[in-house]
Write a structure and sequence with these properties.
Layout (H helix, E strand, L loop, with lengths): L3 E2 L11 E14 L2 E7 L4 E7 H8 L1 H12 L6 E10 L7 E12 L13 H6 L1 H4 L3 H23 L3 E2 L5 E2 L11 E4 L2 E5 L4 H11 L2 E8 L12 E10 L3 H22 L1 H6 L4 H9 L3 E4 H11 L18 H10 L4 E4 L12 E2 L2 E5 L1 E6 L4 E8 L4 H10 L8 H5 L8 E7 H9 L20
Parallel strand pairs: 1-2, 4-6, 7-11, 13-14
Antiparallel strand pairs: 2-3, 2-5, 3-4, 5-6, 8-10, 9-10, 11-12, 12-19, 14-17, 15-16, 17-18, 18-19
Helix pairs in contact: 1-2, 5-7, 5-14, 7-9
The chain binds 4-amino-1,4-dioxobutan-2-aminium adenosine-5'-monophosphate and magnesium ion (MG).
4-amino-1,4-dioxobutan-2-aminium adenosine-5'-monophosphate (4AD) binds next to strand 12, strand 18, strand 19 and helix 14.
């Protein structure tokens, strides 16, 4: 057989005869013509089968049998198609294939996901097949572009990849959302974030980052929560909290630009407003202290278009508050220096105000809400130990983490970005469940 090309490579072969391995996503036509919508993961495009060409090439009988087979091909049948690539102004892709031969690899019958509308539950039950659809393919391409842009950013900024463990003996964020497992007779947990280990890495290697799956046994049923998601944590010594936000801003801009550069057709498929994405890259992000955010929320709580509850200084934000702030400025917004009471034990207090900590959540615009949580870390051994006790964490679980403050403690900051939150935002989709190949949520672990 001829060497195969992919559909994405088709534009380089106009006028040539090529062979492609693909699936028949859809089919239409009548009489002597059949139009096959082919997909191979790289793109979709149309192949046209004209019966007289088959009769001429294979003879009356054999040609008619072959054409008949194509006419009856079921959705998602796999095929090798050989044909000549033609430019086609009318199609979105810009090319089509004039089919000369087609071999069925495996016929498919009664494919469950048809072009009609299916409910979300049905699609989620068929996630293993749903991933083949145009929209799902586009979202995964956005995800992929974000992953590559992330690696590019860290390499270009002097970071070392430092893989943190997934099985851990202590919590990184809180003790309520941990998945527990049995580790040879001892309790162990699935990691909520690699951060604490990255802090050890930062003291060994300088700028470090990790990127891997993390787990939260949260019973949250929202469009923003997964129980298993991919987190990119970074940690760096000798930067201030302000400089840390500068770094995060540069990172998020690089991620958005990476998708614009490398997955534009996917953004088009998703009908994402790319002018907005370009604006986020070009405009400085907003930074607003937590207490100003509360003032702002209070000032607007009786507006016609608000539907959040009253918040007091010292309260945590609920999703509706986050959504409102994230719509208010029209650009990604850091909410800075939250109350210590509902943030993690490792955050360093604001000098002169021990009720607030040096942290920031980055809220994506358009109502998408938090995509990054970051902070400056407590560097003092005694203060950190006091926090461990105050949070009622087991001191012996954190002895190694406390050691980092014993032997050459230095100022350091870090942050964690939730990949699926970023995919949801950049893709412009409604719900996080489509941002990961196989979502794990409160009531879903299959497929
Ligand atoms: O804000 P979080 O909990 O911060 C940390 O875990 C820090 N240890 C990170 C660090 O400083 N290295 O989580 C970080 C990000 C959030 O901003 C959000 O994007 C995402 O992880 N995230 C979730 N994504 C999907 N489903 C969930 N249940 C998530 N919880 C957090
Ligand atoms: Mg957070």
């Amino acid at each position: 057989m001829e060497k195969l090309i992919t559909i994405a490579q088709v534009p380089e072969h106009v006028g040539e005869s090529v062979t492609i391995g693909a699936w028949v996503a859809d089919k239409s036509g009548k009489g002597k013509l059949q139009f096959l919508q082919l997909r191979d993961g790289t793109a979709f495009f149309q192949a046209v089968v004209f019966k007289p060409n088959f009769l001429e090439k294979f003879g009356e009988d054999a040609g008619a049998v072959k054409f008949d087979e194509i006419k009856h091909l079921g959705q998602e049948s796999s095929v090798y198609v050989t044909g000549t690539v033609k430019s086609d102004e009318r199609s979105k892709f810009g090319y089509e294939l004039d089919v000369e031969d087609l071999t069925v690899i495996s016929a498919s019958e009664d494919y469950p996901i048809t072009p009609k509308d299916h409910g979300t539950d049905f699609l989620m039950d068929h996630r293993h097949l749903w991933l083949r659809s145009r929209r799902q393919q586009a979202i995964q391409q956005v995800r992929n572009a974000l992953i590559y842009a992330s690696y590019d950013f860290f390499r270009d900024n002097g970071f070392v990849k430092f893989d943190s463990p997934i099985l851990v003996g202590n919590s990184a964020e809180n003790t309520t959302d941990l998945f527990e497992t049995d580790y040879f007779g001892q309790p162990a947990f699935l990691s909520q974030s690699g951060q604490l280990y990255l802090e050890a890495g930062a003291m060994a290697l300088g700028r470090v980052y990790d990127f891997g799956p993390v787990f939260r046994a949260e019973k949250s049923k929202t469009r923003r929560h997964l129980t298993e998601f991919w987190m990119m944590d970074a940690e760096y010594p000798f930067l201030s909290h302000e400089e840390s936000m500068d770094l995060q801003e540069a990172y998020v801009k690089t991620l958005i630009q990476g998708v614009l550069d490398n997955a534009r057709p996917a953004l088009e498929m998703l009908e994402r407003d790319t002018a907005l994405l370009e604006k986020y890259v070009a405009t400085p992000f907003k930074r607003i202290p937590y207490d100003e955010a509360i003032d702002l929320l209070q000032a607007h709580e009786n507006d016609d278009d608000t539907d959040y509850e009253h918040v007091e200084h010292g309260d945590d934000f609920g999703s509706p508050h986050e959504t409102w702030i994230s719509k208010h400025y029209g650009v990604p917004t850091f909410v800075v220096n939250y109350p210590a009471s509902f943030k993690a034990f490792y955050m360093k207090p604001v000098p002169d105000d021990s009720t607030r900590v040096l942290c920031a959540d980055l809220l994506a615009p358009e109502g998408y809400g938090e995509i990054i949580g970051g902070s400056e870390r407590e560097t003092d051994y005694d203060k950190l130990l006091a926090k461990v006790k105050e949070w009622q964490l087991k001191e012996e679980d954190y002895d190694w983490y406390l050691d980092l403050r014993k032997y050459g403690s230095v100022p350091h900051c870090g942050f964690g970005l939730g990949l699926e939150r970023m995919v949801t935002f950049v893709s412009g989709i409604e719900h996080i469940r489509e941002a990961i190949p196989f979502p794990r949520m409160l009531h879903r672990i299959k497929p």
